[in-house]
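Hi all, long-time lurker, first post. I run a small reading group and we've been trying to get comfortable going from sequence to structure in the token notation. Rather than ask abstract questions, I figured I'd post a concrete chain and ask someone more experienced to write out its structure so we can walk through it together at our next meeting. Sequence below, copied exactly:
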Amino acid sequence: MASPIVPARPGFTLIELLVVIAIIALLVGILLPALGEARRTARSVQSLANLRTNSQMHTAYQSDFKEQLVNPFDRSTSLRMCPDTSLTWLWVVGRECNQGWPYGPPFSTSGTESYGYHWIAHTLYYNADRDSRLGSIISPGDRALAQWFVNNRPAQGDLQWIFPSSYWYPPVFWQSSGRFTTASRPAGSPANRYFIRRNRISDVLYPDKKVLLFENKDYFARNVVQWNNVRAVTRVALLDGSAAELKMADVIGETSSTPTDTQPLLPPSGTWNPGASEMDGYLEYGQPQGFSWRYNEPAYFWATRDGIRGRDFTRR
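-- Answer (accepted) --
Happy to help. Here is the structure in token form:
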């Protein structure tokens, strides 16, 4: 008796499988960059929202203090009853002078400038309802700062901690414009009272061109770069209440030591150079804590020529 004929089972040939795999690989290659760009855009939007939130706090401060810009300092070198009257101090809330943050030698080589990295911890960490601002001070891409808070959990709810932010507040807002008129700004010291000045919103000539807060790195670039790098896209809050992305290539392209119609901005007043000893040691915001910085770079936004009266950019 003849064996029954068994029909061939349907299946894919090797060539068909290879074609399908090639199509899937092609689709993945097309979709992955798009997904990466969508993720970058979403994180950038969140960072801009953080900047607007913090900018609104500054606006509320101005309303409460007769248009004064945020400034925790006093021009006097002997504040309250501090044990060392040669320094300018900021106090940790509730501790007076027995636990504070001194500005000036031998601690800070840049004087009160270093307040700009920790401004929210000193001044605006809590709102009137005592709600923590922690969620709005860490850029979605700032892994080092996020890890810092993991390693220092008490800082998340203790107002007595001094901690950094992803968004920096430039010293031009609490110092005299006269400090920023030359190519290299003079050092702040007790002798010149750190150039501290009570600036008001009315002192600003270009509110829509003045950077109030800026993200200290382009965290969403393929390779993270510092805000003042020519390759950076820097997210900023402006004094008029808006937030924006600025291409540093455009800002640098507008800058010249002899301004023209096409290059209308003067270079910053010197470089950003607190130095590793200050960032790593006194400020605890350097390499030992997981942060990395490039020094001796032009201090765009940080030391704008003409200070509070100057422009940080002309177009965007």
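A couple of things your group might point at:
DSSP finds five helices and ten strands in the chain.
The mean pLDDT is 85.
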